[in-house]
Amino acid sequence: MAATPTPRAPSNPPGAAPAFTRAIARFQPGLPLAVAFSGGADSTALLLACAERWPGQVQALHVHHGLQAAADGFDAQARSTCTELNIPLHVLRVDARHASGQSPEDAARGARYAALREAALTAGVRDVALAQHADDQVETLLLALSRGAGLPGLASMPEAWERGGLRWHRPLLEVPGAELRAWLHACGLKAGEGWVEDPSNADERYTRNRIRARLLPVLGEVFPQFRATFARSAAHAAQAQRLLEQLAAQDMKTTGVGSAPEQGPRIAALRALSRDRQANLLRHWLRQAHVADDPRSGSANASAAQLEELLDQIAACATRGHHIQLKVGAGRVERRGEILAWYNRPA
Same domain, yes or no, for 54 and 94? Predict the structure, then answer.
């Protein structure tokens, strides 16, 4: 698929997308900055606006998943746009096929972030901007609610975080997706020329696409400000989760949790805490233990039923001879003397 050359965007198209304009004005990343650039509408708007604000300080990172026939078209559009705007482009091809039992979306996401990190570090960039917007945040929150998620899920996507030696940013989480396209149109760009439409976005076999096509229009009719109010709720959940993580860190220290997965909390000290604080500490420890043991598998957490069973076993653990060995997440928790240990392979 041949890409049409992309015209240079005019500065601040009059009256176009005020939320987008405010978001870019508030955005204060470290420079130089890399933008994850798919060639679609959202990342095109972000790349053009950032390149205009910080000329000569912005690079583009494009990940070629090879999962659909349209991937070559995205690649061609990314090259055309960056050539026209004189923006350095780094293209990475990855194998994003999922393993047996793994979610295709999770596999693609993991491969994408790993590739973006590799490209950014190679380019000498420490700040990476992603183009997820308010609609994406609402979809993430609704998916979390549908799964009965706790605070980490209800917090949805963070606006900024640090991982793998990089600072990651999502500056558009308060900007409706329609505003990004309005801004592009005001710049004289249109689909098929200024950006490429992803054909998979119309495939309602995917839950996220069904939410976008069916639920968001209804929510807009019933609750016109739902994007802003949902974002506020997600921010409240994120704040509460940060406080719980601080409490868990304190409790992990007082119960003797070490840096290795086998160095879990002392059972006696754990039993001295309330059941709610035990649950909070155990969630935090298990996430940390799993990532420490296998950084590729940090998403495998304890289910609610597994955690409740573990708490019941801890409550019953009043004697030295009480045995604990339970499947939790992708591994097992067992009692080893006076402490709990986690492992995902034979000890």
Answer: yes
* Residue 335 dihedral angles phi and psi, to the nearest 5°: -85, 130
For the question of whether the overall pTM of this predicted structure is more than 0.70, the answer is: yes
Instruction: Report the C-alpha gap between 322 and 338 in whole angstroms.
Output: 10
What is the domain range of residue 286?
255-343
Q: Which of 335, 347, 344, 342 is nearest to 271 (CA)?
A: 335
What is the secondary structure of 241-309 as a DSSP string?
Answer: HHHHHHHHHHHHHHTT--SSTT---BHHHHHTS-HHHHHHHHHHHHHHHHHHH-GGGTT----HHHHHH
Q: Is 320 helix (H, G, I), strand (E, B) or coil?
A: coil
3-state secondary structure of 118: helix
Tokens 């204060």 map to which residue?
28
In a 10 Å sphere around its CB, with 0-12 CB exposed, 13-18 middle and 19+ buried, how is residue 248 labelled?
A: buried
Residue 146 CB burial class (10 angstroms; 0-12, 13-18, ≥19): exposed
CA dist 215 and 340 (Å) reads: 44
Cis amide linkage into residue 32, ω under 30° from 0: yes
Task: State both tokens at 240.
Answer: 């509460």
Q: What's the structural domain count of the chain?
A: 2
Cα–Cα distances (Å) from 116 to 3, 64, 94, 96, 193, in that order, read 23, 11, 10, 13, 25
Predicted pLDDT of residue 205: 86
Q: CA separation (Å) from 80 to 129, 144, 222, 266, 268?
A: 20, 37, 41, 59, 63
CATH of the domain at 298: 1.20.59
pLDDT tens digit string along 62-92?
A: 988 765 666 778 889 999 999 999 999 999 8
191 and 323 housed in the same domain: no
